[in-house]
Amino acid sequence: RVKMSGEEILMCAVQLGENFCLYFADDDGLECDAFCKEKSLHRVLRNVNSQLLVVRPDLNMAAFEDVTDQEMKSGSGMHFNIHCYKTTTPSVGVPVAFSIQVEDKSYYMCCEKECGKMIVRFREGEVPEEIPGESNVIFFKTMFTSCSSRAFKFECSLEQGMFLAFEEEGCLRKLILKKLSREDEVDETMKIS
Asked: DSSP 3-state assignment of 72?
């Protein structure tokens, strides 16, 4: 038996095979790899410059912007639902998905490959309750650094080393996916609180 997050899971070891691979007996009681929605948090997302992430589906864009308190209270496209998932496989961080309400429609954030480049998109619809395997809507949430307990980075589950970040484009700070050049690198454009 293995104890993970408070619950016991039955594991039936059969043998050590070639190259010391561990084989398990077939057991109907074992779970397959999956993500299951556990809870949702309602938050605004800020970058290192204290700007809020604002989604504009009509322009197919999300960018960090300076927003007044008044705009934030009444603002559409700024209040995110962060859906936390539990998983049957160990992961580098907490699996999360993002959704947002803009006017009367729901949108979810996802990663997509376009012209050989990974990009962030917002698609109309809801995030699923259960995800049977890999998904372009899952990001792994980890602490930005060990000394910033309120700042995080979000890694794309489909592309290891690709994180949500911002990139300056004219006067905009657009939401993008950015590759870390080194695992120990600290890139402030990936810091989200």
From this structure: helix
